[in-house]
Amino acid sequence: MAKAAVAVLFGGRSSEHSISSATAGGVLRAIDRDRFRVIPVGITRDGAFVLEDDDPDKFALAPGALPEVVDNGTRVRWPDSTLSREIVVDHADGRRESLGDVDVVFPILHGRFGEDGTVQGFLELLGLPYVGAGLLMSAIGMDKHTTKSVLKAAGVPVVPWVAFTRAELDRDRDLWERRVRALGLPAFVKPARAGSSVGVSKVSEWTELDAALEAAFAEDVTVLVEQAVVGREVECGVLEGRDGAPPRVSVAGEIVITGRDFYDFEAKYLDAPGIELACPADLREGELAEMQRIAARAFDAVGGEGLARVDFFFTGTEFFVNEVNTMPGFTPISMFPKCWIASGMSYADLITELIDLARVR
Q: Domain tally for the chain?
């Protein structure tokens, strides 16, 4: 039987370009080569589609050497209509080469211009099957304010928050500062559409608020300020059910913070000290069941396609959903694969399952 062709799409124009590249390295290393023919397609920071090297080591994540997609002069050309699935590459020397038909696209893109529905809409326009959330779910999941609004309407418990644009803040700063201060301290300031803790700050004194807002506004035009919850940070992975079945939810993992203010970029991706990822988390049977129930409800509320990592705060008596991440990291130290491995699914089998879900959707 011929191998299915999988175009692994990574890099991109967002501030999470390097994280996307590192995640792709993990997928390139683990994907089942007996079943799949891999076409690695990188997106440069300027948005050019290039044919990348099929080399996981090239995209290893290390402090001071973050991987990236560099313009190598090639250009990947997508099909010009739904009547074809052939992709070709134009080489720098003028040669044009067919890469064959693609069966499914695996868009390992974090942040804007990839995880937000942009690429999903592009692939739907071409009629190409793809891994992960669809256009609407991706757009909802990318915007923290929209996600929280949808979850709250669905009866899913979320942390109190305030969201505003820079223009709104400039028009009536006193109003928005009163609303922010009503949340109390400490508080977290976040860009509405960014991930990997980019632009996120913990505010412990009101004198820190202006700098935190500037860091968040550097990433997006809309900013959230959230009430800090005293509790444990726990997460679980969710996969779309097969043949109309309910979503599948992994065991829980826990982020144990011992020497940092919060789970920041360095801790997530550069293995910085002060953070431990414990999987499975130490939860009682009833607590885990309730967390899994809420995770499945949250997944369905935002669209229920492909996969997600649902992040919680657990006070000991209540679970609050913090975020629904529709394309979580797949790096070797990321929580999403850890949770599924602890649930009995290997890394390679998890990738295969996601590709198979895309092909039968």
A: 3
Same domain, 235 and 217: no
Compute how many other C-beta atoms are within 10 angstroms of the C-beta atom of residue 127.
12
Q: How far apart are CA 162 and CA 224, in angstroms?
A: 6
pLDDT digits (tens, 9 = 90+) for 66-76: 899 999 999 99
C-alpha span between 281 and 279 (Å, rounded): 5
214/236 same-domain check:
no
The token pair that represents 130 in the structure block: 């793809």
pTM (2 decimals)? Answer: 0.90
Q: Tokens at residue 329, please?
A: 């990291």
Q: Is 192 exposed, middle or buried (0-12, 13-18, 19+ CB in 10 A)?
A: buried
First-last CA distance in the chain: 21
The first and second tokens of residue 253, run together, are: 């993992």
Burial class (CB in 10 A: 0-12, 13-18, 19+), 161: buried
93 and 33 share one domain:
yes
Least confidently predicted of 65-69, 77-81, 191-195, 233-237: 191-195
Q: What integer pLDDT is reported at residue 259 of this predicted model?
A: 62
Is residue 265 helix, strand or coil? Answer: helix
